[in-house]
Amino acid sequence: MAQEHKLEIFRGLVKFKSNTQKIWGVLIFLTIVTVIEVVLGIFKPESLMGYVLGMKALNWIFIILTIVKAYYITWDFMHMRDEAKGLRRAVVWTTIFLILYLVFILLQEGGYVFRVYDQGYITRDF
Amino acid sequence: MSTAVVNTGTEGKTWGGGNEPLKASYGKMMMWFFIVSDALTFSGFLAAYGFSRFKFIDAWPIADEVFTHFPFFHGVDAPMYYVAFMTFVLIMSSVTMVLAVDAGHHLNKSKVTIYMFLTIIGGIIFVGSQAWEWNTFIKGDYGAVQTKGGNILQFVDAEGHRVALKDFVVAGHNDRAKHESKNGLWFVNEGTLPTYTVQEVLHGLESHENVLVRTQKLTAEGEKTVLTRAESLKQIKDNGKLVVEGANLHVNEYGSPLFADFFFFITGFHGFHVFSGVVLNIIIFFNVVLGTYERRKSYEMVEKVGLYWHFVDLVWVFVFTFFYLV
User: Where are the membrane-spanning stretches (chain B) (predicted)?
Assistant: First the structure.
């Protein structure tokens, strides 16, 4: 029961001949992304230390690269690319929506508590 | 007697029953939904970590300065290399897993066996590495002084390099012995006592002109604030309360105790997932070797356990980013 796999990544930019070949291709891509992350993490280029939307540009790059990696792990290693549209949406959209909601609420609250400590009458400096 | 059967008019359509509208077996779908709920559990932990970090955004430990060790390279400053290695091991074992699934689709028993075996080895290396990380983290390397307010004071030399307590503090004679249940209250425990007292640290600091105190506070450049000589002495004398070596759930020489708590909890929970993944993989491995799936003419079990294994890898990608990079 040789299952059918979609064998192209990057919206058809890279096409593979077999599923095995695609797996190695994705591994190479994930390794490159990880190496970029580690190199940036060690050298921390000065030019990326500016703030974009309340966070360092470097941190945005890390988070975006992580999501890119997560996408390829889910789509190609877990074969989400080959699943029915209904299953894919039920799993991915539900998770993404709930996580974004949770993260937003907790980070917002954390920032608020920080400002209470920082500008309020509570001191921690002793 | 046509009342017994209700005609809905959906017979033969996608959702009319007797179909697999999502084109996935029951087991595989349930694995996906388990993964969704587990993903939410992990994001709950990571979001809680984010909450605590935002709460102490101006005083959070810098991961680069915490995880600087590599096995067999003692004293070499190697930030992140070891975690990068661990990440790579886990991605690699994901690859062997997906190759096993692929070989399963071709009903190639010997290949599935080899790839499952390699996956298990990768998982064991990862769990072992994590144990080593924990060990290094718990032992600590420089030591610090905790203040009355629960802040951590670390020591640096004039160039800003970290100085370990043992390099400038001399341990004096101490009458205070560790309480043991065999010669005291049998129902009371006490952890290991610190090597030095705050008084001894103060003496050490007084006699070493070039040692300064570094606080948790981050400067605008994202580095820790170093106090002047006079302030250093004053801080230790007035506020020093406890000498901290290494990290546990109560104290943490690297900074906020919450950092250590979340480190233990999140990487521990993830490590437990990897461990259970290895156990599941071993069970499936033996089933493969025994030919169970060969007789069944379907290696779908390998696929299901593979989904779980990839999920563990997926979680690590996020843990790696939020604990070590950001």
Answer: 31-51, 80-100, 112-132, 262-293, 305-325
Q: Please report the residues numbered 77 through 96 in chain B whose beta carbons come closer than 8 angstroms to any beta carbon of chain A.
A: 79-81, 84, 87-88, 91-92, 94-95
Query: CA distances (Å), A108 to each of A112, A114, B187, in order?
Result: 6, 10, 44
Distance in angstroms (rounded) separating the CA atoms of residues B169 and B88: 40
Q: How many domains does chain A have?
A: 2
Pairing of the two strands B144-147 and B240-244: antiparallel
CA distance B219 to B249: 27
Exposed, middle or buried: residue B207 (CB in 10 Å: 0-12, 13-18, 19+)? exposed
Provide the β-strand partners of residue A15.
A8
Who wins on pLDDT, B50 or A4? B50
Contact A38 B84 (CB under 8 A): yes
Per-residue pLDDT tens for B162-190?
899 988 988 877 777 788 888 888 888 88
**Mean of the pLDDT values across residues B98-103?**
94
Residues B289 and B227 in one domain: no
Say whether both A111 and A53 belong to one domain.
Answer: no
Domain identity same for A71 and A95? no
pLDDT band at B5 (very low <50, low <70, confident <90, very high): low
Query: Does B91 sit within 8 Å of A91, measured CB to CB?
Result: no
